[in-house]
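Subject: Protein record for review, amino acid sequence with backbone structure tokens
How to read it: Take the token row as a discrete description of the fold.
Enclosed: The protein record, placed directly beneath this head.
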Amino acid sequence: AFEQDGAARAQELAGEFGATLILICLPAATGIALVAEPLAGFMVGEAFREDAARVIPPIAFAAFMSGCISYYFHQSFTLTQRTGMMAAALAPAAGVNVALNLWWLPIYGVMGAVWATVAAYGVGLLIFIFLGRRLLPLPIPFRVLAQAGGACAVMALIVSLIPNLGAGALVQLLVEAAIGALVYGAAALVLDIAGCREWLRNLRNRTQSAGTP
């Protein structure tokens, strides 16, 4: 689109992709954070479960920020063929990571490293947004972000009310993940986040057309 139709069309398509990214990835990160305890109980030994459960939530949101950088805001640099600037954009974030690790690790231990990583990704995200807007401004879907955030808040409330079933970490994980996904999906449909109702209509129409002899 950028090569054939120009920057305006590319920005329009980028906005749609950004909305889709938030629609799918924000609840994924939130969901991982919500099921941190049963997930840690299923994945690691008992001696490491407590630390793993504390590490998982912030790392999940660091991964979300990393995804926004890699799969969205990078495009400002790649489409305009200014990929060399990405290294300059990453340098301050790397410096923040090293500096905060030196400061926080002796004080907070492993959580100091975790929060240093989160802070570094946050700095990197802001830098990529700022520099990218000078090359090819990509729209930030604030409305979709607010709607998805609200739906995630509802999901978090419902999941937090699920009691410990006493059936093991795997069962607890599956139940919480399934209920969380259903709650978020219902909220997304009610709010029509990123036009997801139209997606479902189009999918249904394609499925029906494919099944028509």
Summary: The two ends are 35 Å apart (CA to CA). The longest helix spans residues 7-34.
